[in-house]
Amino acid sequence: MRSAADPVDVTAAVEVLRAGGLVAFPTETVYGLGADASNAAAVTRIFEVKGRPLGHPLIVHLSSADQLDEWAGAIPRDARRLAEACWPGPLTLLLPRSTRVPDVVTGGRSTVGLRVPAHPVALALLRAFGGGVAAPSANRFGRVSPTTVAHGRDDLGDDVDYVLDGGPCTVGVESTIVDLSGGEPEVLRAGGVSDDVLASVLGRPVPHWGGGGAARAPGMLAAHYAPRARVLVLEDPEAVDAATRSALASGSVVGLLAPVVTDGLSLEVIELEPAGGPEDYARVLYDRLRQADRLGIEVLVVVPPPAEGVGVAVRDRLRRAATDA
Ligand code: TXA
Ligand code: MG
Q1: Residues 205-235: pLDDT tens digits?
Q2: What ligand is nearest to the CA atom of residue 136?
Q3: What is the pLDDT of residues 115-137, one digit of tens each?
Q4: How far lies 160's CA from each of 153, 205, 287, in Å?
Q5: Residue 207 DSSP one-character state
Q6: Ligand 1 in reach of 72 Cβ (< 6 A)
Q7: Nearest Cα to 189, choosing from 216, 229, 223, 152?
Q8: How far is the CA of 119 from the centre of ligand 2 (A)?
Q9: How far is CA 270 from the centre of its chain?
Q10: Of all atoms in ligand 1, which is nearest to the CA of residue 173?
C-alpha cells in the first residue's frame, strides 16, 4: 500500500516483483535490474535479459540492516559496524550466505553480496516488497552501467516489465564491495564508499584484494566498463597531446574527457564536457562514455581524476575500460 512517506507509488512495481517479473529501479550508484531474490526462475530471467553468463553472482538489495540475519549465515562484528555506519549507502558486504539464498543468485558460491541502497525510490520499493531484491546493474552485459532511466531503456528496452524513474544517480559508480566472509576484510571492488571511510569505521585500513578479479568476484576482471571507443588513460599533458595527435594522424575520430578544460587542443578533437573533481567525475563518467559512443568517437583519451575518495573507483573503472578483452 502507498504510504504518505513514499516518494513514488511503488505498488505496481511490487506486484511485478511478486509475480516473478523484472523491475528496473534507481539506486544512488547506478540503476539496477531487480527480481525477487527468493524466486530462482525470476532471477534466472535477469541473466537472460542482460545476456550475463550464469555464475556471475548478483547483489541482494535489502531495505535495512535488520534483514541481515535472514540473508547471511554469519555476521562478523566488522560487518555489523560497516552496515551501521554506511547503510543505506554504496557499500556491498560479502558474507557467508544463509540457506534461503537460491544458488542462482550466488552462482553456487557459499557467499552472498548484500546492500541497502540510499535512494528514496529504491527504499520505498524494498520496504513495500518486504523481501530481498537481487539486482545487477540494468545494462546489457559488457556495456557501462546506466546512471539515468534513459540509459537503462536504451540497453534493455521492452525486456523489462516495469521501470521506476528516480532521476540521475547521485554517486554514479557502483558500490564498494568488501569481503567479510572469512579472515581480514578486503575490498574486492572500489566504489562509492572510499577507503578513508572504511578505515575510519573499522579503525584500520582495509586492503584491496590484489589477485585479479576472476576467482573472487567474477565479472570484474574483463573490460566490463568499456565504451565502443578505444580508451587511453593518460595523465601527463604531453602524453595527452602526443596521443591525440597520433590518433588523428591515423584517421580516427578522437575524443577527450578530462577533469577541466584542456588548453591547446587540436580543433579536430571532440572535447567532452569536463568531468570535474572526483565526485562530479564519478557522477558523470558513464554518461560521458555513452556520449562518446553516440558521437562515434573511436579513440577516447581520458585524463582521470586524482586518486582521492571516489576518484579511486573512477580510476579503477577507467583502467578496466582501457583493457582490451
Ligand atoms: O552499486 C551496485 O553495486 C549496483 C547497484 C544496482 O546496486 N549493482 C551492481 O551489480 O553493480 P553488478 O551485478 O553489476 O555487480 C556486482 C558485482 C559482480 O561483479 C559480482 O561478481 C560481485 O558483485 N558479487 C556479487 N555477489 C558476489 C559473491 N557472492 N561473490 C563474489 N562476488 C560477488
Ligand atoms: Mg554491472
Answers
A1: 999 987 654 456 655 555 567 788 999 999 9
A2: 1
A3: 999 999 999 999 999 999 999 99
A4: 9, 40, 21
A5: P
A6: no
A7: 216
A8: 18
A9: 27
A10: 1
